[in-house]
Design brief:
Elements (H helix, E strand, L loop, with lengths): L1 H31 L3 H16 L2 H5 L2 E3 L11 H9 L3 E8 L2 E7 L5 E3 L5 E3 L13 E4 L3 E3 L4 E2 L5 H5 L7 E5 L5 E2 L13 E3 L4 E3 L2
Parallel strand pairs: 1-2, 1-6, 6-9, 7-10, 9-11
Antiparallel strand pairs: 2-3, 4-5, 7-8, 11-12
Length: 202
Amino acid sequence: MKSDRIEKQTKIFTDQKKERNQIRSSYKYQREAMSASLVRQLSSKICDQILAWELYQQADMIFFYYPLGNEVSLLSVMEHALQSGKRIALPKTSADRMDFYEVFDLHALQEGRFHVIEPESKEKAPIDQLPELCFVPGVVFDRAGGRFGYGKGYYDRYFADRDSVKLAGCAYECQIAERLPVHEWDVRMDYLVSERSIAQIN
């Protein structure tokens, strides 16, 4: 009986993983099919909204990400933040760990794992200050704050016990589903930022 129960649980987990991967692949395909000009246009709209956002304006420390492929690009917001005297940090991964390192110059970055542009971290310690705001990339989000990344779990692990940080998922409207089959350990977003609006998740 015990072996039957374990086999059933294993099948359920395998089916769920397959479903999540299918959803992830479908939305990733849609995003990567976007033209470069559309990516620039929609990213510009998103950046304009962020620059006018009170939470961004009041934040002194902000975590960003460097766009990979057709991800929403917040590069102009990062430049503005640096010029405005805000402190910013970007993530760097190693094995199953992710840390954030403070960045002072967007030209002083390098290509890291998975072809992601990352901070240079030689002889540097990860930042030990939590930000007021963190912009989070993803393959697909839902209206309730659920998120699917690339399946590695970096953001879920990093923010598992850092619930004081406001997380803002960045996506195009074509990346937003009504409801995703998220797990209880998946970290939820506090805000969803798209070309349409900045929506607070209740």
